[in-house]
């Protein structure tokens, strides 16, 4: 069976949590790709900590998943600042200027479309590799942002709530070497495995697991 890709919008970092406890993360998840902005990292750790260990899913901090705009709220942090906030994670795969909204991370539509296309191609390669390995873990989680999600899914109408998610399959288009698309698989849900959490609670939370974090380039070589 092909990989399912769970496209997740980050949770809110404060105020109201969902009214009920979300289900546990599925054991079928092999890789979690996360934007390196603080709110997406927090969402990932809050929602997927149970499977982010040396025996479970692998976490990849992918700067290509950062939000589209160059507003301060959508701009990431220096690597050293992230290390101070999340000392249990490995940030070696992030370049020092990963958050600068220039070049491949510029905020114009054409550049963002190219960045999203590159992510889709890598998702297709990753899904194909996981399928070829034949293991039980073959699904992929992508934790990203509301506007970039529109480019990634090629769907201007997608408007997930905070912590909302939608399931996709990824497939080729225009031949094996052409672009790839994300086709909807299943339905849209108001809350994913990650729930709304308070910044203060996360900051005070002691890690209760050994994270299996790897660099993006190291995963791509596997």
UniProtKB/TrEMBL annotation:
Can you tell me where the transmembrane regions are? Answer: none
Record InterPro entries:
His_Pase_superF_clade-1 (IPR013078), His_PPase_superfam (IPR029033), PGM_Phosphatase (IPR050275)
Q: Name one Pfam family in it.
A: His_Phos_1
SMART domains according to UniProt? PGAM (SM00855)
* Coiled-coil stretches noted in the UniProt entry, renumbered to this chain: none
Q: What is this protein called?
A: Uncharacterized protein
Q: Which organism is it from?
A: Humicola insolens
- Lineage, opening ranks: Eukaryota, Fungi, Dikarya, Ascomycota, Pezizomycotina
